Amino acid sequence: MKDATPQTIYLADYAPYPWVIDSVALTFRLSPNGTRVISKIAFRPNPASAGGEFFLHGEHLRLISAKIDGVAVTPDVTDKGLTCAVPDGPFLWEAEVEIDPEANTALEGLYMSNGMYCTQCEAEGFRRITYYPDRPDVMAVFTVRVESDLPVLLSNGDPVAQGAGFAEWHDPWPKPAYLFALVAGDLVATSDSFTTMEGREVALNIWVRPGDEGKCAFGLEALKASMKWDEDVYGRAYDLDIFNIVAVDDFNAGAMENKGLNIFNSALILASPATSTDRDFERIEAVIAHEYFHNWTGNRITCRDWFQLCLKEGLTVFRDQQFTGDMRSHAVKRIEDAILLRARQFREDNGPLAHPVRPESFIEINNFYTITVYEKGAELIGMLKRLVGDADYTRALDLYFSRHDGDAATIEDWLAVFEDATGRDLTQFKRWYAQAGTPRVAVTDDFKDGVYTLHFEQKTNPTPGQDEKLPQVIPIAVGLLNPDGSEAVATRILEMTEATQSFTFTGLAARPFPSILRGFSAPVILERDSSMDERAFLLAHDTDPFNKWDAGRALARDVMQAIVTQGAPAPRAYLDGLAAVLRDDSLDPAFRALVLSLPSEDDTAQTLADAGHTPDPTAIYHAHEALRVQIAQHLQDILPRIYAQNQVDGPYSPDAAAAGNRALGNAVLAFITRLDGGAQAAQQYAAADNMTQQLAALSCLLATGKGDDQVQAFYDQWQADRLVMDKWFALQVANAAPEQAAQTARTLTQHALFDWRNPNRFRSVFGALAGNTAGFHAADGAGYDLLADWLIKLDPANPQTAARMTAAFETWRRFGPDRQARMRVALDRIGKTKGLSPDTGEMVARILG
Ligand code: B3K
Ligand code: ZN
Asked: Which of 94, 168, 291, 810 is labelled catalytic?
């Protein structure tokens, strides 16, 4: 527990720290229960500050001694930090503290994972290591000495000395404490090197536990590709002689961009064909890129305060999206990103946890590492780029890097760079950072005498603390198609700035079909009462891949809604549209797989809620299954051929083309399973020589109530591999029938391999339960109760992960009174738990509203 009365922090209260730090020297004497940390920090008054008391953050520390300029002092110590009288001018602060890494189950600060020491300091974990101004605008040059008998001792920067039982590291780049890292353990490296465009020879290492060396090759290739890409596309070169990555099993987040010493959740770095799916490979490649790209967008230019988190995260996500597009397929990546944004960010924006991309207050900053800050933050960068154009975007970024290198910057700094580089006034654009909620853009059209007009109206619903919304700048990419499918007007960006606005197109021979919001040009909900015919037309003819896919998605949404509310079967136009796409060999298989995928059950619940219905998750589950069966029957003549065509021969390769074939083959297999009772899936399972094929087959079987033997076989094969076992846990819960999901999850928590303190394993069961919409929302409330029980159990050990997972309840107001009441009870029970962390307390309070 951090504090009995958690404090709210406000952006408006920002003030610079009264001192600057010239240097930091840390010595770590590692010991599992009594690590000593000795710090020497050179402070001097900050000329940009009006002064203030000398305060250093510090939590869970035992102060052994403190000195100022060599003289012992006795600071005032609380559970948050210390204050002390200090000289007027510069001074040297020295302190020795003791910490207990082994008891640190929160996985913030210095902790132990399988006998190795590692750190996680973002956002505010450094204060669990020593007394320090733990805020991102305090940047300093660190020298670190690690003393331990363990063979590998790592920290940030370049190695400067090492000998029996110690190693010293020096990081020449001033950095905030959140980028500090230390690792010590019995580790082995897989190594390579990269020569930068500036001629620097950089040693690259991926450090893992012995036994995992065989899973590093892909990560190294991805790292080199990222380094090259950042040079080619952004002109950014790496700036140290060594780049280390370490894999850690116990990790709250995905990975961390510590300067020169990235630390990764092992799930996001270890890769092999036998144990990782195509999705894992793509994700690993993207996360390696993301953390590497932070070296410039995050580390060289960091955030002034945590309200500016999107400055580094939104931009870095945008950069990793561009990278993945370049490495694989832009069209497919854009669709994947839009699916994620709509499923999770729109949902967040639409509920009690809605907050602006740049929040204005928080209790626990870790609760704001959200899909809104990250993914909507990235969308804002994409919109800026669309508005100013590619050339001006590049000029603005060059200016950003040259003007702010070494700074702790703000969103104002970021926007000023764009204004200065392009001459544009971005005052209105800035609302995107301040207003929460997803704008809804309603469109109507008319056509007369060759003039076609689109009328737009934008509106954003109230969100917590924000009743009134002002119009935002929305770049709407539009193209027009002739009735014969040819292009009448090529894509152009309409810049919407008013609440209502119309745009005309002249010289048209016939009423065109509009293709609106091409490429998903803004993170908005497009509302257009279009006919099934118009959607089917766009699915067949749109030249914009995103809108072609989205037309199919919109059709599926309508169809699903009609099935749930009227029991209506899917219309022929929709089924024929799907068949035409599936048959079209000129289309990328990965794209076709996406067209075949249905909206999630959670999406359907939201669609129904938007249309004024009370969604019943059980009915939605059955409607989805009914539609799958209907599609399978309609496509049955072509399914075997498409399946066969997309089997990839030869040794497994994770490249985009092969992965696309497997994605389509497995999308088709899901339909075949509805027709053949699982025979083909069982055959695929038995023949599979890679995890993609094995897992896809197993999931088809489980989704149709089969696969008991394969679940056992999978366990027998993989029980020694913890990452594969995470999949084994997750798959069973994710595919459990609605009335069985909670029981399946409960049974799995009793399994010998269920280690609830390991965040990956906890998430494999409870993330999967929360993601099984019908199962989590089962009418008897068993899903809610089980999750609440386990969040209450997890919270004292690991508040950060417990808090994040309470978001499973964020949609509670969407459902009928019975489910609402049951969710309320569960939330109240969590909220009233004695000693509940401020992290989870903040989340529960916000969700209940
Ligand atoms: N910056 C880290 C996230 C840290 C999470 C702290 N709760 C990873 C990333 O976004 O790259
Ligand atoms: Zn990041």
From this structure: 291
